[in-house]
Known about the structure:
Layout: H1 12-32, E1 46-56, E2 62-66, E3 72-76, H2 82-98, E4 106-111, E5 116-120, E6 125-128, H3 134-150
Antiparallel strand pairs: 1-2, 1-4, 2-3, 4-5, 5-6
Amino acid sequence: MGQTATARDPQRKPAIACGCLIATAVVLVALTRHDPVPEFIDPANVKRIVELRFSDLPDGTVVASDAATGNEIERIVPGAGGFIRVTMRSFATERKQKGLDSEVPFTLTRMNNGALYLQDGLTGRTMLLNAFGPSNEGVFAELIDQKRTTQ
């Protein structure tokens, strides 16, 4: 009469299954998470390169200039150029977080196949601008195209 029946918890198996599922998800995320591999740009396929510097004016205007000559390429007035502003702010923030020089120019590269890349040589970050659609890619393309027309 001293035997007591051990009651089995009916939620034990589902709880173990959920735990295994969570553990599997954590392991998979840990295995696939890594720093992005920098995009390799083959110099043989480069159509055009321009080194750009961006500066902010007190009124909120952003000035894009040719780093080699110092010539102004474009003025982006407040309320305009949202994609350029967000993109360059993102690049500048990464430099600032890493304590890097903000005066080093960015590289805008047009490839023979039409791909347009923005690169930061200091951080190693490369962005394929075509991935953001033709209108967003186009605002950066204007910078490299204007450079071509002024030479």
